[in-house]
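Morning!

This is the sequence you dropped in the shared folder:
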Amino acid sequence: MSIDLDIDYVERVLTKSNYIPDDNINTVVFLAIALKKPILIEGPPGTGKTELSKAISDAFSRDFFRIQCYEGITFEQIVGEWNYQKQLLSLEMTKKNESTEDVFQEDFFIKRPLLSSFMNEKDSVILIDEIDKADEEVESFLLQALGEKQITVNDLGTFHLNNDIMVIITSNSQRQLLDETKDRCLYLYIDYPSLEREIKIVKSHVPEAPSALVETVVKVIERIRTLNLIKAPSIRASVDWVRTLMIFNQNVLDEESLKKTINVVVKNEEDKKKVLNNIKLD
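The structure's back. Tokens below.
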């Protein structure tokens, strides 16, 4: 890289991209860039795993690609697939014109995120989000393609990696990942932030909010997260709650505003009742 990359630089550019990192995040991102190694990020939902990959893309001026994994995701949905309708239409046209056309070429192939990221000329970030939802065969294929820096598509050929791609893999630990995945990656666990860090995060997103309101909301969010809810509030919930209170011109979080706006924070009725029964404000 042309910049003098160090951990302080990583912290500055991530913060400038509106992501407030901690020392562990700064160190792992620095090493991933310096060593050209993937990052495997685990941690509870809503702690900023996906947002970190977007922030890295923005901070280091890299194009961003995302593979959202889910149960049953296939090679075609990751790499690409033939546009059969376009192929058939082309064949019909060539019959009428009594000519021939090769329908197994790039113009007839729909590129999905992995192949698009490989063919991109500009340095990129590819996020493989929630890889634990895909099966081991898909995980193994992704590792092989990224390790060999090439993808082969039947009837189309082999595509080589065209840029310095940074790979970020997230997992919610729905299943155990392959040992090979863990061996190839730098590991980063992102938990819910400390009180001080979450206050900084919320202020970075809602700078117009009074400091006292932000501090109160984050403290209450921390208490709510201890209640063993079906879905603990994310960092985004903290930001949205402060924004909601600002919309209502409410500079103080009290019992009335808690009851009025709690649906911003909790996402089901059982959690709502648990919060209202256990969280009392002065």
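Headline: DSSP finds 13 helices and nine strands in the chain.

More detail when I'm at my desk.
O.
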